[in-house]
Amino acid sequence: xxxxxxxxxxxxxxxxxxxxxxxxxxxxxxxxxxxxxxxxxxxxxxxxxxxxxxxxxxxxxxxxxxxxxxxxxxxxxxxxxxxxxxxxxxxxxxxxxxxxxxxxxxxxxxxxxxxxxxxxxxxx
Length: 124
Known about the structure:
This protein has helices at residues 4-7, 40-46, 52-61, 77-89; strands at residues 2-3, 25-33, 90-98, 105-109, 112-113. The protein is of the alpha+beta class. It has one domain: Single Sheet (N-terminal domain of TfIIb). Interacts with TRM9.
């Protein structure tokens, strides 16, 4: 399943695609909300790994406005719960992820992104 916690780490790896290859843009998505057990300690430990700007832009492109523009210095429990929801409970079941740099489309089917590249697209 493509959750935003995973999406926040995906970049295009097409040969010679090194500009604007992150984050991948969602389109034609079927979004499903699946409740997940809260582990706010995990969310706090994961914060340094997040590209906050990319996460906020992606969440907003999917219709979720719950995250602040800037990452808070001090987190409230309510803010951590909102972040948990965005990272762990929003699932893209169907759709596409497109590279802004080269335009390569990574289809998502049944919650699984196809990140495989054709041989001519793979850098050596």
